[in-house]
Amino acid sequence: MSTFAPFAKPLYVMLKPIGSRCNLDCDYCYYLEKANLYTNEDKGHVLKEELLEKFIKQYIEAQTMPQVMFTWHGGETLMRPLSFYKKAVELQKQYAGGRQIENTLQTNGTLLNDEWCKFFKDNNFLIGISIDGPQEFHDEYRRDKMGRPSFHKVMKGISLLQKHGVEYNVMAVVNDYNSNYPVEFYQFFKDIGAQFIQFTPIVERIRTKKGVLKLATANETKDEAELAHYSISPEKWGSFLCKVFDEWIKEDVGKIYVQIFDSTLANWVGEQPGLCTMAKTCGHAGVMEFNGDVYSCDHFVFPEYYLGNVNVKPLTSMMYSEKQMKFGNDKFDKLPKQCRECNYLFACYGECPKNRFVNDKYGNPGLNYLCQGYYKFFSHVAPYMDFMKYELMAKRPPANVMEWSKNGMKPYR
Fold first, then answer.
1. One of 27, 144, 246, 298 is an active-site residue; which one?
2. CA distances from 314 to 19, 91, 292, 319 (A)
3. Model confidence pLDDT, tens digit, residues 291-350
4. pLDDT, one tens digit for every residue, the chain (413 residues)
5. What is the DSSP letter of 408?
6. pLDDT value at position 10?
7. How does pLDDT run across 353-369, given as a tens digit for each residue?
């Protein structure tokens, strides 16, 4: 067992078995360019079997909880052959040591077939599917290397998952275009039978100076980076969330699980949210590249957030290092004055540090670009969240909020 067992937080490291390689070329992808960090490496950018075994052994031994979650991410994960994941499952069983092993895998869905789906079902994989709504919305930015649309291939993949009974959720990027149609967007996911939905606002900035990486970190000033055209505005993000919430609250509470709504309620009742961006601190979730390089977070694969290589340092020494601890604590410690005074500080804690590149009303740096949108959303849902919190305290189902809202939202205390 690891000598770091006293640490309360489970160690969590996302794995990149194919690096940033992908069969699609989505306009807003923040990971495709990471290949430029590894131009001197094997062009295949594949995680070799020897390193796979080393990671699995270390990762399991480092855990302080009986459940161990492996997360496979890309690039496009299914560009590795099925034999790779069969080997991974064998190694997990070999080193499990009585622990319960769980796997989740993120894919764009275009390469799914019956063989993949049978394997996922047989081995209880949870699959995340990236899809940005109906065809017109999805194909706006999610195309292949030849510029061809990908919607129909993704939908075929979802049908195969459903056919084989594979558990899946959908991850939808909300951008400058599809954010204009929140009701149609949400209805689409209901129509295809999605029960678990994650909405991710796209916010990226392009460096004004040429370099190895074109995307900027939050540390770069507005003179050093400009907002990418596909980024959602704070106003649109707030309106989008409010309108989707209004649809969800009508009849879907307890039936369809929207991650940001669940996480908001968790914060409202003082529980740990499922979204790291809405937690008080972060830093417990790192990412390992195909060659063993470990970084602080999937959204912080930049040289300044490099923690080391698993071939040289144990995972525990990197993930529990002072550098990583500081990275995680900075999420709260570096909040500007406006955040600390906010009535909804408890609900978002400044959201993701990668989006904190504007000044607050006092001129202090570090305010989240999406702050205005989140404030609008929290203000809008506050009465509903208060009611659901009260229901939970009274040991009644929060889904009662639907009937309460239909009956004119009468006082409940």
1. 298
2. 20, 18, 11, 9
3. 999 999 999 999 999 999 999 999 999 999 999 999 999 999 999 999 999 999 999 999
4. 223 333 446 789 999 999 999 999 999 999 999 999 998 776 678 999 999 999 999 999 999 889 999 999 999 999 999 999 999 999 999 999 999 999 999 999 999 999 999 999 999 999 999 999 999 999 999 999 999 999 999 999 999 999 999 999 999 999 999 999 999 999 999 999 999 999 999 999 999 988 889 999 998 988 899 999 999 999 999 999 999 999 999 999 999 999 999 999 999 999 999 999 999 999 989 999 999 999 999 999 999 999 999 999 999 999 999 999 999 999 999 999 999 999 999 999 999 999 999 999 999 999 999 999 999 999 999 999 999 999 999 999 999 999 999 998 877 65
5. T
6. 76
7. 999 999 999 999 999 99
Q: At CB < 8 A and 24+ separation, what contacts does 275-279 make?
A: 276/352, 277/348, 277/351, 277/352, 278/347, 278/348, 278/349, 278/351, 279/331, 279/349
pTM over 0.90: yes
Q: Which residues contact 14 (CB under 8 A, 6 or more apart)?
A: 71, 73, 285, 286, 287, 288, 298
Q: Which two tokens stand for residue 351?
A: 């959201």
Please check whether residue 220 is in contact with residue 205, taking contact to mean a CB–CB distance below 8 angstroms.
yes
Peptide bond into 408 cis (omega under 30): no
Compute the distance between CA of residue 68 and CA of residue 102 in angstroms, rounded to an integer. Answer: 6
Tokens of 344: 């909804």
A 10 A CB-CB count for 136 gives 14
Closest Cα to residue 35, out of 53, 48, 21, 46?
A: 21
Between CA 33 and CA 301 the distance in angstroms is: 10
Under a CB-based contact definition with an 8 Å cutoff, are residues 40 and 98 in contact? no
Q: Which residues of 22-43 are buried (b: 16+ CB within 10 A; e: fewer)?
A: bbbbbebbbbbebbebbeeeee
Runs of H (alpha helix) within 254-370:
259-268, 315-319, 322-333, 337-341, 345-348
Write the single-letter amino acid at 362. Y
Answer whether 405's CB lies under 8 Å from 395's CB.
no
Note if 144 is an active site residue: no
Taking the C-alpha atoms of residue 82 and residue 112, their distance in angstroms, rounded to an integer, is 11
> Which residues neighbour 389 within 8 Å (Cβ) at sequence distance 6 or greater?
265, 268, 269
Q: Which two tokens stand for residue 323?
A: 């550098």
> Could you tell me the CA-to-CA distances from 315 to 41, 144, 252, 295 in Å, in that order?
22, 35, 41, 11
316 close to 233: Cβ distance less than 8 angstroms? no
